[in-house]
Amino acid sequence: MTREAPPVTHSSWVWEIFHRDKKKQDFVALSSAKVEYVAATGASCQAIWLKRILEDMGELQTSVTEIFCDNKSAIAMAKNPVQQNRTKHIDIKYHFLRDVQAKGHIEMRYFPTEEQLADIFTKALPRDRFQFQRRMLGVTDKCIKEKY
Q1: 77-81: long-range contacts, CB 8 A cutoff, minimum separation 24
Q2: Within a domain: residue 124?
Q3: Is 6 inside a domain boundary?
Q4: PANTHER family attached here (predicted)?
Q5: Whole-model pTM above 0.70?
Q6: Mean pLDDT of the residues in the chain
Q7: Is 74's pLDDT higher than 80?
Q8: Do residue 47 and residue 109 come from a single domain?
Q9: Domain span holding position 93
Q10: Do 103 and 140 have their domain in common?
Q11: Backbone φ, ψ for residue 110 (5° rounding)
Q12: Does 72 share its domain with 128?
């Protein structure tokens, strides 16, 4: 790690790969926005935890932590502190996301579905999509690399 403390990127799919206490959702999702909102809450908790670990090691983060989400409705719910009909059924513990966003600890940002890299870990992809995501992760095919 450099002394300049490069930005730390958290991706919930990376966390899920290594996290041993995975469990099923404790609610029935009525919308994809709710699922994404709850997932973003978990990601923000982990991002804050990682930020504190880095601070304990002397690496201060000077910029806001960005949480990328491909659901604009979930982002709108996180940014709006007013209780609305579409959020009244969400358990209050998940509104932690609103609090940390309002305090400036995290910032929800839209990230198009087509650019999400989690698909490579969760489903079979067409060859071109697989190669694109593999390239974005910085992974290369050894056989192809040796030819050039």
Answers
A1: 77/33, 77/37, 78/37, 78/40, 78/108, 79/108
A2: yes
A3: no
A4: GAG-POL-RELATED RETROTRANSPOSON, REVERSE TRANSCRIPTASE TY1_COPIA-TYPE DOMAIN-CONTAINING PROTEIN
A5: no
A6: 75
A7: yes
A8: yes
A9: 12-116
A10: no
A11: -80, 135
A12: no
